[in-house]
Amino acid sequence: MTDKSVPASQGGVSYSGTVVPVILSGGSGSRLWPVSRKSYPKQFWPLLGEKTLLQETALRGQKAGLGAPVIVSNAEHRFVIAEQLREAGVHDARILLEPVGRNSAPAIAAAAFTIAEQDPDAVLWVMAADAAISDHGSLKSGLDAAVAAARKGYIVTFGIKPTRPETGYGYIEQGTALDGVDGVYAVARFVEKPDAATAEHLAGQGNYLWNSGMFVASAATFLSEIEKFEPALYACVQQAVAQRKTDMDFERLDPESFKKAPDISVDYAVAERTTRAAVVPAGFGWSDIGSWDALWELGDKDASGNVAVGDVLLQDVRNSYVRTNGVLTVALGVENLIVVVTQDAVLVADKAHAQDVKTVVQRLKDTGRPEAENHRLIYRPWGFYEGLIEGRRFQVKRIVVNPGQKLSLQKHFHRSEHWVVVGGTAIVTRGEEEILLHENESVYLPLGIMHRLENPGRIPLTLIEVQSGAYLGEDDIVRVEDIYSRP
Questions:
Q1: Mean pLDDT, all residues of the chain
Q2: What is the 3-state secondary structure (H, E, C) of 429-459?
Q3: Does some domain include residue 3?
Q4: In the 8-state DSSP scheme, what is residue 52?
Q5: pLDDT tens, position by position, 91-120
Q6: Cα separation of 410 and 480, whole Å?
Q7: Angle at CA of residue 114, ends 108 and 117, nearest 5°
Q8: Dihedral angle sign, alpha carbons of residues 32, 193, 24, 57
Q9: pLDDT tens profile 74-92
Q10: Dihedral (CA of 364, 370, 376, 381) sign
């Protein structure tokens, strides 16, 4: 690196001599639609148990005895991430906020620059927020080997031993063993996601591994290779980190600098070009949970090979995955199906076409369907709201405000609102008034009046909102004051 000057740390966390988990939480998981959508992607859902995929990933570092993680995410999901980490008991995490998505290479570079401020030789363990690992014992031994190689200047990935031909993963050709580091091998080459025939061939070779997308390298090594192969990216991200701002518990990368960074994955930017690439062959039960058939494979199956999640009734059904988020779902006389039911969409697919769900999502986007990216349940820093009924010049929503939280001070130009409290206690600002409302009490907010909603209690505040007016879009909000720094 030509410039090793970095600003003082803003986080107060020391990484010297440690391995730092770096978690990338920027994906949308479109192949798991309709559960995973851009507004609330798969890493925030409990798809395999009680904890969400993000929580499981963050706890993975704790189980390995490592320090607090650094998480790179977009600003929209910052409060969801912070709350899920708190619920999981993961403390002292640093959350870096990207102003725009620029793929994995700039995201990892931002984490590396941030960590290098205190210790350029700290080792980064980079992983996506939405993958699963079942064998933590094998993971620990594999990680130990990867860290040992990383301390010798290698950029190490984990190659997963194939259990079947798979077209959804890239492959790594395992080369010769590295001297002085047991269990680590040179990378002979990377192979793009193959077609079915090529996947069949590679899976049977014995020296080809699935590319897990996890990387282990020192901050100094990674930044040195970025500077060598992508100097423009290096310069843009270095400046974005140096000029970042602290916002509550978050660190916002400088927008103007970061937006100029090339949009490129770490595979294309570094892994496929460096002479330092190494791989640890692993068998620790990894899955990127990239499709519904992957969840079927990982799920607990009944005697007929079915995975049922939620209020599901099956009769004469075999080898299927059926999931519902509340609506009674019945399947009769079918096999090899994926059935996923949410409040506003239903997916029915042959398991053999699980990888094609993303093409359906793209068709929905092309036709302007909101279900492509947004749930009916919309999460906000203060809680969430849910659309219940919509008609000409009116709509009805359920609003839930978490204890101690409040909405922005705002007004609308095109609608009036009527709020009815159905649970908890509310403080309502209406113009110059401040009104305390209890259960079964209501307030009317005329068009154009300044207003705010706050939950002063210890239990969630739930109310029903009835909007009426000529235009009811969410962009008809003029925020005057907001504790969450939203525009």
A1: 92
A2: EECCEEEEECCCCEEEECCCCCEEEECCCCC
A3: no
A4: -
A5: 899 999 999 999 999 999 999 999 999 999
A6: 6
A7: 135
A8: positive
A9: 988 999 999 999 999 998 9
A10: positive
Q: Is the dihedral of CA 270, 271, 277, 283 positive or negative?
A: positive
* Integer Cα distance of 424 and 401 in angstroms: 9
Section 58-74 average pLDDT:
90
Please give the Cα distance from 177 to 85 (Å, whole number): 38
Please state whether the peptide bond connecting residue 7 to the residue before it is cis, i.e. omega within 30 degrees of 0: no
Closest CA to 59 of 164, 161, 129, 153: 129
* % residues pLDDT > 70 (the chain): 97
Same domain, 274 and 165: yes
Q: What is the DSSP letter of 138?
A: H
- Domain shared by 153 and 195, yes or no: yes
Q: How far apart are the first and last CA of the chain?
A: 37
Residue 335 included in any domain = yes
199: Cα separation from own chain's centroid: 28
Residues 276 and 357 in one domain: no
Q: Which domain holds residue 151?
A: 19-287
Short-list 57, 51, 284, CA closest to 158: 284
What one-character DSSP code corresponds to residue 137? H
Give 163-219 pLDDT, tens digit per residue: 888 888 899 999 999 998 999 999 999 999 999 999 999 998 989 999 999 999 999
What span, in angstroms and rounded, lies between the C-alpha atoms of 189 and 186?
Answer: 9
Tokens for 126? 């980079």
What is the DSSP-derived secondary structure letter of residue 253? P
pLDDT surpasses 60 at 15: no
Domain count of the chain?
A: 3
Give the sign of the dihedral formed by CA 270, CA 272, CA 273, CA 279: positive
In CATH, what number is assigned to the domain containing residue 32? Answer: 3.90.550.10
Beta bridge partners of 321: 307, 338
CB 167 within 8 A of CB 227: no
- Residue 232: DSSP 8-state: H
CB atoms within 10 A of CB 195: 8
Of the residues 287, 311, 329, the one at which a domain ends: 287
Written as one letter, the residue type at 278 is A
Helices (H) and strands (E) in the chain, counts: 11, 30
Element (H, E) at 385: strand 383-391
Query: How far apart are the C-alpha atoms of 47 and 70, rounded to whole Å?
Result: 23
What sign does the dihedral 127-76-458-386 (CA atoms) show? negative
Residues 134 and 207 in one domain: yes
Burial zone of 433 (CB within 10 Å; 0-12 exposed, 13-18 middle, 19+ buried): exposed
Q: How far apart are CA 223 and CA 221, in angstroms?
A: 6
Tell me how many degrees the CA angle 77-81-83 measures, rounded to the nearest 5: 120
